[in-house]
Amino acid sequence: MTTTPVKPNTSLVAPANSPLKTPGLLSGEFFQETFALARRLFIQLQRRPSTLIAGIIQPLLWLVLFGALFQNVPEGLFGTSQNYGQFLGAGVIVFTAFSGALNAGLPVMFDREFGFLNRLLVAPLASRFSIVLASAIFITALSLIQTAAIIAVSALLGAGLPGPLGLSIVTLIVLLLVLGVTALSLGLAFALPGHVELIAVIFVTNLPLLFASTALVPLSFMPTWLQAIASLNPLSYAIEPIRYVYLHTHWSLSSVVLQAPWGSVTMGVALLVLIGFDALALISVQRLLRRTLA
Amino acid sequence: MAPAVLIQNLQKRYGPVEAVKDVSLTVEPGQIFGLLGPNGAGKTTTLRCLCTLTKPDLGIVEVAGVSAIKNPKKARQLLGYVAQEVALDKVLTGRELLQLQAALYHLPRAVAAERIKATLALLDLDNYADQKTGTYSGGLRKRLDLAAGLLHQPVVLVLDEPTVGLDIESRRVIWDFLRQLRDSGTTVLMTSHYLEEIDALADRVAIIDQGKVIAEGTPSELKDQVGGDRITLRIREFAPLDEAEKAKAMIQALPFVQDVLINPDQGNSLNLVVVPQSEALSTIQQALKEVGLPTFGIAQARPSLDDVYLAATGRTLLDADVAASGKRDPKAERKQNMR
After folding, report:
1. CB < 8 Å to A126, chain B
2. Which chain B residues are within 8 Å of A114, Cβ to Cβ?
3. ipTM for this prediction
4. Which of A4, A210, A220, B77 lies at a C-alpha separation of 20 to 30 Å from A101?
5. Cα(A183)–Cα(B193) distance, rounded to whole angstroms?
6. Residue A4 CA neighbour count, 13 Å, CB half
7. B 85-124 residues with CB below 8 A of A?
8. How many domains does chain B have?
9. Which residue segment(s) compose the domain that B263 sits in?
10. What's the CATH code of the domain at B157?
11. What is the pLDDT of residues A215-243, one digit of tens each?
12. What are the CA-CA distances from residue A129 to residues A47, A115, A117, A287, B95 (Å)?
């Protein structure tokens, strides 16, 4: 123990006189705390890179192994795709981003369980939304790294590469999907009692949503009842536009990307569905987050 | 000047459990204020209400005149909270944790760097600052947590059981540090179920039992109120009961003796409450000798805070603690404290 004297605390009088106004959303303080919270997550990632490495290897294995499984499928069976690998690429991009975002709530849940969240809650945060935003930034960055890796490897495997505009639409779609799913996962992280329950929810959501989407096979492959489900599944609305820009050098918002049982879905509609999904997700978790974080 | 902490008629219930029934206390600036009570008495819940982690059902909670209920953000700025369970991110280094903490309290970068340096030195953490907190010992973790709580120079430092589970040396270091902090003007509000901790540190103490404050004052005031001295007498290391009874009857007749109890848990030793006087011990020993009984050990003491608790509740703090720990459901409490 040192004998350095503690600085006299002169702030005792000041608070009572100082104005009670505190910084809010979009203030410099808000960005400071959001940045610091996100930094923590990136430091964790840097010191424990296994999540990232596994998160990149796994989708690549999907591509290589699952792709090989249907390699000998007759041409034309998977729509206009030249080979199954090309068909699968879009599915793997979306599914990887989706699983990553679905797990976004886990670190927050562990912070709740270990009491680290209390450290944040007793601090005079400009807005506790920064806790959520920091997680969202982190997950988004992670998804983009994974997406880039998948795009690069599928290009090497002969799936081709969309043009710059196509790549931007891929990025936009990934971001839209990650935003909505991250919001839901973070909402669950505050609503569920513990990590066991959260993992259970992730588990029962993850694969069924994959199989009930157009990630692995086209709609035309499915029985009618599954077609109905798959054409309600937000994943399909992310997969099909990406698949379309992979296959077509010329596309527009009015290009038909999905032939649903009730009619054709254009690129523009698919994007609107994703935006609607985000809005719905954000609204539904907002009250949940407000209850805990208000 | 407004009191550093003002809590009035605080009430908090979790479902059927009334964690806090009626707690009122006033902490003046520059004091170490101790909240003493057995496990489950409502100490932690009181602190959680103060630190805006839990919304009270009823009552007034103020920090330096700022309502923690109506103006929680401002109150948080004035408080430093060090929880009982140290929650550090084991992947971060001590310095990184403090940097995060500084940002959460919106310290400008230059100020933060300077404070972190000073606080690390103050708590003797320099050599560990760049190691991951996962490698820290219990005492180090607590010190880092203290440093984190102090970084923004709070008006009131709130500590929940600051030395529970720590070794004696770490405990001494933290005691010294808290005294130093108090002397420099920071108000400290701490809970403990260790009598000696509150006795050694607190300028004022509130004894809390089953959600209510049952006594408040300086430790010596409280002890004086209970009155009398305590004498522990052992005739033999393990005295037979008939001998103890015989001694009890004889001692009870002495004019300065107020009460005598036989404690079968400690070899039928005799616990006496006596009017304070210098000759008590020799008088008792003499009287024993006259009836042919030996003295194995005899000691006189002023009443302790435990005697204060005993007088108010009819049981000792240790007994209350043991009873409470049997009834507690740590899992349910964890859930309760999760946000």
Report:
1. 106
2. 87
3. 0.84
4. A220
5. 42
6. 12
7. 85, 87-89, 91-92, 96, 99-101, 103-106, 118, 121-124
8. 2
9. 228-302
10. 3.40.50.300
11. 998 898 899 999 999 999 999 999 999 99
12. 26, 18, 13, 12, 25
